[in-house]
Amino acid sequence: MAQKPSIPKGTRDFTPIEVAKRNYIFNTIRGAFETFGFQPIETPSFENSETLMGKYGDEGDRLIFKILNSGDYLSKANTEAYNTKDSNKLTSSISEKALRYDLTVPFARYVVQHQNEIEFPFKRYQIQPVWRADRPQKGRFREFYQCDADVVGSDSLWQEVEFIQLYDTVFKALKLEGVTIKINNRKILSGIAEVIGASNKLIDFTVALDKLDKIGEEKVKEEMLSKGISQDGISKLQPLFSLSGSFESQMESLRTILATSKDGLKGIEELAFINLAISELGLTTATLQLDVTLARGLNYYTGAIFEVSAPQEVKIGSIGGGGRYDDLTGIFGMKDMSGVGISFGLDRIYLVLEELNLFPETVNKSVEVLFINFGDKEALFSLKAIKVLREAGINAELYPEAAKMKKQMTHANRRNIPFVVLVGEEEITSSTYTLKDMTLGEQYKVSLQDLISKLK
Amino acid sequence: MAQKPSIPKGTRDFTPIEVAKRNYIFNTIRGAFETFGFQPIETPSFENSETLMGKYGDEGDRLIFKILNSGDYLSKANTEAYNTKDSNKLTSSISEKALRYDLTVPFARYVVQHQNEIEFPFKRYQIQPVWRADRPQKGRFREFYQCDADVVGSDSLWQEVEFIQLYDTVFKALKLEGVTIKINNRKILSGIAEVIGASNKLIDFTVALDKLDKIGEEKVKEEMLSKGISQDGISKLQPLFSLSGSFESQMESLRTILATSKDGLKGIEELAFINLAISELGLTTATLQLDVTLARGLNYYTGAIFEVSAPQEVKIGSIGGGGRYDDLTGIFGMKDMSGVGISFGLDRIYLVLEELNLFPETVNKSVEVLFINFGDKEALFSLKAIKVLREAGINAELYPEAAKMKKQMTHANRRNIPFVVLVGEEEITSSTYTLKDMTLGEQYKVSLQDLISKLK
Hints:
The structure is a homodimer.
Chain A: H1 16-35, E1 39-40, E2 46-48, H2 49-52, H3 57-63, E3 66-67, H4 79-83, H5 87-94, E4 97-99, H6 104-113, E5 122-131, E6 143-152, H7 158-173, E7 180-185, H8 186-195, H9 202-209, H10 212-226, H11 231-236, H12 238-241, H13 247-257, H14 262-281, E8 287-290, E9 304-309, E10 318-325, E11 339-344, H15 346-355, E12 369-371, H16 376-391, E13 396-398, H17 405-414, E14 419-422, H18 425-430, E15 433-437, E16 443-446, H19 448-455
Parallel strand pairs in A: 1-5, 7-8, 12-13, 12-14
Antiparallel strand pairs in A: 2-4, 3-4, 5-6, 6-11, 7-9, 9-10, 10-11, 14-15, 15-16
Helix pairs in contact in A: 1-7, 1-15, 7-14, 8-14, 9-10, 13-14
Organism (chains A, B): Seonamhaeicola aphaedonensis
Main location (chains A, B): cytoplasm
Keywords (chains A, B): Aminoacyl-tRNA synthetase, ATP-binding, Cytoplasm, Ligase, Nucleotide-binding, Protein biosynthesis
């Protein structure tokens, strides 16, 4: 009954070196989250379906993985749906639980459920996998990690300032230079829509504007026209298409365009505050850039919108994003909790570090020393030394059988173990160890104390 | 549309302090795994159903969480099962994936699938959640972590020796004294069954024997009789019921009982090897104990069987276990891969450390210093200092708004933040910081350099 083993499409096994590289990124992000005062929480992998359904739009609902009820689940099946074989309608009667689709909705649920234990403002981070029944493609998986940090219970703009610094801190720690943190503000977008008389077409407008980089000015204008935005309105946008120069000079142009919009001016004021603070505090590796076309998750964000681009030489989408949402917990009945947060795209950051060769060499280091096994007596003598080495924090092991020397040396080579220790009759008698440096090919006879210093 | 938020039964949210405590245990175990030369792998949360189904017995099959296919899943439903509303039979036609039930079967699948990349013997560890549709009860959850270390591709008994040392190392690092590592050998159990003429009743025999502690000698004998084991056979067992004394003296009694069983003597020889090595190497906190009644997972183990008991003062079941299985990967068509491994029970270890008050005090430490916010100018000055503190590895944050002083101090207290910094007009002018020790109530005026040294 042997089966040819495989895993579901869109999922991945991670080998030791891949786990080590992923943990290097996770640990860097986690470390930064903690120095910035964020605290970890974890939520269950599956939630009650009603917690998730209806929170991500129709497309989201379709992409949520549902878990079949246990036991005789058909006994509670919706009769009408069953008789008409309506999959969509039947689901809620045979499935009560669903896999987490993102970390934001479970976080909102957590905040509401634990509101009496939480001390607000609450700065939480969460690094956990999510699942989406998306069509798998290059860089898109059905199981992937999200790394989120959010603050709820404060509408202070200092949080936005902190998040920009947090991004900078993480990318500096990862030695990733040339990252651009793009920022926009929902209020600027609604201000523009207001000014051109398209407030009721805000989404159409921003969807079109968002394509400026890809399809160019003319095509964007055509799309806006086709969506019913007036030629007159579009003309007023002209300065927008040629926005360039420094953060400050772009802000100046925007101030002119938005002079008549209260909302728009508020957005500019917020951006100016953030920009001023950041220029006072300074960024180490990243650059802050105003991008008026930035509109991601528009229905959701109410203030700042962030998106992080990888260095230009790497052709990859955004490696992070976030923003402010004024009503995170309203869906669960808790009003007026302003939240702001950012996310890191683990898989894409991994690809970027790989492409730029930025993983530290030591990430691959697993075992530092392998003791060759010449027989039970030698093995026991070796294990006594190995015990001491491990207590000193050195990753050490004994080859498990007294196999041929060549086989054991090959094993050490294949595993990139940098040192090998040989213990025979002579070494036991003299309480010494023959240490072989696998890179240089040299070998020395050393005491246990020297062995520790050499390997540390 | 507000919903009263809740989570599925048998699942848990983890608050920051709980995450910190769990990570303390995870990191301790992970650190020990790595110093012993184990390498991490990760496998997907869900596997193809055929990978898991049929591997854990009928009960296991029922307890596996199945994931409903996406889209119009009923279009491929098994017609007969659908028409007869047979839940059990329908499942495989509407669900192709299932959540991981343990880490061993996915590991076996991984080894077979990646056999050409793996350098054997392969020492892997894996710390990931598993899911079981079990009835939730105290200490039993539907989502919980397993922490496994296994070696495949070596039948050397040095591995068993290493695993006992590994247990000792972890419990020493956790400062958990009084742990007992119980060991048995499947060959001893089959030897005993052979000697009393009940080889074909090995399972009945061991199930009964396993209850010795709980129901006593007489009841165990009754159960054996009722299962068809002869009176004569049971009499031969008499010395077994009174086995006591040291490891060595118990082994002597066993040698007499098992004198005629080749298998049994082999088991004794293996145990003697392990016991001798361990007494040479020494254990720091744990005690190794022979327990002939130990039979866990019998159908699975072929050699050593381990089980770890918490210190006697804590009334809780086993906190770990494992053993050797000679055919780990046979189910996936790869023969003759001997494996041996152990597991740590995270949730129970957590309860034990909690009960014995063994979590280090620092585990709770999140933010070391909160800067009180007196307004934008002071906040900016503070953030410049905070940036320097963070670069020095100190977890620091700014209260996000210029709220009333009392509110900000209360916030620091509620979050157990040990230090607060006050920056006003005077401090800005003199480039100093007023540091308040929240425990002692004292405060000092210090330079930035002093602030760093004080907080480090």
